[in-house]
Structure formats: structure tokens, C-alpha cells
Amino acid sequence: MEFAYNYLKENYLSAKCSHPILQINQYPLPFSKVEKIVDECEKVLVLEDGYPFVEEQLRGFLNINSKIIGRFKRLLSRETVKLNPDIVAKSTRSRG
Question: What are the b/e assignments for 47-76, b being 16+ CB within 10 Å?
Fold first, then answer.
């Protein structure tokens, strides 16, 4: 998840991201922080390399499939295992 966060930040070098960002570097997931950001946002974009583990956990725990977007919603290709700054930029522009 560290790479995904860095790729996101690369897309906002000249300006601050106008959306809240929660960087997760621990397991179990910090569900109180996750619930807070989900309550505050219309959509939640989950960026992670490899298998969409966090996205799957959020869907199961929060039972809010309509708010979570990422690999399962095909915003990010499930075949593209490695993220890069261009893929992240495209996904942040096409949210919604």
C-alpha cells in the first residue's frame, strides 16, 4: 500500500489533494478511521497493489458496496497487478 500512496502523492505535487486520504500500513485495519472517512465521503477509492485485500475487507465489514470503488468495481484493472502514477492519475480523474 505504500507504493499506491506514493503514486497518489506524485499526482498532487503542485497542489494539495482536495479529498481526504487515509494511508493504511497496518493489520488489522483501523476500522474506526475507515468508518469515519466512509461516513464523510460519497465514494471511497481504494488503491492497493496486488490482490484487493483491503477493498475486500471494507466491503465485508462495512457492507457498503456502492461507496467502495477499486479493482472489484473495475475502476482499476484486476489484471494490472502493479500500480504506477499514470494508473493512479487515471483512476482519480474517473471517480464518481
Answer: bbeeebebbbbbbeebeeeeebbbbbbebb
Here the cell at position 18 is 482536495
With 70 as the cut, is the pLDDT of residue 85 above it? yes
46: closest CA among 90, 5, 86? 5
- 6, 21, 55 from 79: Cα distances, Å: 21, 25, 16
- Judge if pTM exceeds 0.90: no
Percent of the chain with pLDDT over 90: 4
The pLDDT of residue 2 is 75
